[in-house]
Amino acid sequence: MKKRILAFCSALLLGLTVLSGCQSTPAEESSTSSAAPTETAEATATPEATAEPTEAPNAEPANVNLLTGLPTLTEEAAGKRPVAVMINNVEAALPQYGISAADVIFEIPVEYDLTRLMALYGDYTQVPDVCSVRSCRYYYPILAVGFDAVYVHWGMDETIARETVTRLDIDRVDALEASYGLLGRDQARLDSGYALEHTGMFYGGKLPEALENNGIRTDLDEAHQGAAFNFVPQGENAAPQGDAAGSVRVDFGGNYSTFTYDAETATYLKNYKDSPHMDSASGEQLAFENVIVLETDISVRDAAIGLKNVNWQGGASYHGYYISEGAVQPITWSKADEYSPLKFFGEDGEEVQINRGKTYIAMTYPGNCTISES
Which among 125, 129, 148, 120 has a CA at the least distance from the CA of 75? Predict the structure, then answer.
């Protein structure tokens, strides 16, 4: 009997030992598995090694200026609206000032085929004092809302321009309505003999505080938070695929602008007619990485005072030129609706990439642009 009990206890002890051994096996296998390097273990470790976020190739910096594609914005201006200022462009108003700081300049005919400029500034905290400010023509605010810009002007024609700004519901700074203390007369110009209409001055340095104090939206709306143009990737430059373009002349009828390519700076230096177009405050000649000429329909709408109709929408049959890096490329252009940006297309129908930097855009009559090699 004692032998049976002893045998039973021995068997029980052996069974417990075996059971204990079976229970320890997974832990041992796990320890062995994690200790022994295998392809699976290495693959699992790879994401951990690269888990720290890295900037994607060609990612846009947070401080990129949406009008130039260059990382030049102040921290306060990131994600904020640009500003568009109407500029007097007759000879009696020259020289203007504050315009060499503009990132984009439009030039379009007005009455008597003279021209008016619209200067756009991508950083609303760095707009200089600008002179001389002039009145609105209806096609300019339509272009401005394509950038979600705050629009600055001194009055307007009270026919179609009034109806246009009302319909667009565009945020405006107007010396004759709500100027927010941002517009006045340049007394030095008055003292030196400039006519009153050539002395309108915009106090750019006061803009951020004035917008905030008067509840004017400064954040870009959702539809305009991307680049204004289809820029080449960061760090790249590309000449248009076409003929050499050393000099350019854009005629408007009563005025013309000429450009000469400066290979050293890779910019086109602008002339007012045949004289350097200067900024009297900075002492700089206007210079642009890109010159874009858009041919469109322009006609007289009001014969008594010469106000114009300008086709701002374009389309597949509307031609133009993209000029940069000493070369020119034929394009077509369009603007889908009032709030959409301008788009430029190559002969293949694909959207053209333009170089980063400052851009001059002219709208003029078909056939009024002359481009030569030198």
Answer: 125
Rounded distance, CA 242 to CA 329, Å?
A: 5
Q: Is 40 helix (H, G, I), strand (E, B) or coil?
A: helix
What is the phi/psi pair of residue 290, to 5°? -125, 135
Rg (CA), the chain: 32
CB 342 within 8 A of CB 87: no
- What number is the average pLDDT over the span 153-172? 96
Cα distances (Å, whole numbers) of residue 12 to 6, 7, 16? 10, 9, 6
Query: Mind giving me the DSSP string for 111-168?
Result: GGG-EEEEEEES-TTS---EE-B--B-THHHHHHHTTT-EEEES-B-TTHHHHHHHHH
pLDDT at residue number 5: 38
Largest CA distance in the chain: 134
Distance of CA 338 to the CA centre of its chain: 17
